[in-house]
Amino acid sequence: MVKSKIKEIRQKRNITQKNLAEKLGVSRQALCMWESDKRELKAPVLKKIAKIFGVQIDELIYIKEDLKIKKEMDMAREKLLKATFELLAPDAKKVALTGDFNSWDANGIKMRKYKSGKWKANVDCTPGRYEYKYIVDNEWWTDPNNTKSAVNSFGAVNSVIEL
Hints:
Layout: E1 2-4, H1 6-12, H2 17-24, H3 28-35, H4 43-53, E2 61-63, H5 65-78, E3 81-88, E4 95-99, E5 109-110, E6 112-113, E7 118-125, E8 129-136, E9 139-141, E10 149-151, E11 157-162
Antiparallel strand pairs: 1-2, 3-7, 4-5, 4-8, 6-7, 8-9, 8-11, 10-11
């Protein structure tokens, strides 16, 4: 069910129900019904309200589940752990990191090169087990500093980190 944010936005902008109803050309009761979700908002009304508030239509509505999802996402963010990946490859021109944490994106997470020849990247992950590899100048490398590994479904070896 779609629920409106009209009342919330109206109150933040110090607009009375009466003033908004007048601008919309509707009764205060109709506006009250929309604000309390007792009457469904039609697209033309949403467009008009969005124009009055100077916002996009999608800023006026949300799914009731959004609050639950937002809360779950906030909780998940709190549980994120930072993993630092380092690789010594002084002659490399380009190094990226890829793995379970970024759905094995072939572009990878770009790593930063330091004067020492060490490449670094930080990744925020939820606790768990992750397989990964480095992409060094378009070649896939396991982590030479990590003895934990696993054979993937293609028969190749991946490095493993557990957070």
